[in-house]
Write the structure tokens for this entry.
Amino acid sequence: MGKIIEFFKRLLKRLVEELNESHHGYLNFNFVLKVFDKEDKKKSSTRVKNSEEVEAEEKEFDVQILDFNKHVDDLVKLLEIFPNTVGEALKILMEWLKMSGKELSDESLLSKKSISEIRTGKVKKPRIETLIALCVGMNLPPLVSRRFIETAGIKLNPSDRQQLVYEIILDGCSSLSIYQCNKILRKNGFAPL
């Protein structure tokens, strides 16, 4: 049984590496590898686990895989209906997240009026800082953040230091608050969102 699990772990690791490479940073599957790293650290423990502990860990991992699959399915459904305008995209994302205008305002530090103007199409091309603040406020996955930003006709340029910092925030900091992201920006010499 252990050899089979190790085989599938190696196979999944290779798949994750291939997916990361083939999506050129638009979709990051590294969180799957973190699950394996945790599992590997547990195995390096000097204490030998009994069969009940091993079975419990396998069940826990099965639940994590189900959660992962649900997350992928949700993203596929979202991207299938993703609109081409920033206002419609913001509406869809807020519905997908079950997030109100007030909640998004609190999480992004943008006014409810600004959010409303984007949603209704009064503002068709929001500033990049506004879009990044919305992505951070909604804690969007990197793939969805980029898709949302592209609906405004913007593509981040990693050769521009400020836009590179935005890329890093979107890629690795989707769980950070707007305050933490603003601190990162200030420490890099840029204005907060």
About this structure: The chain has a mean pLDDT of 83. The radius of gyration is 20 Å. Residues 34 and 40 are 10 Å apart (CA to CA). The chain is about 70% helix and 0% strand.
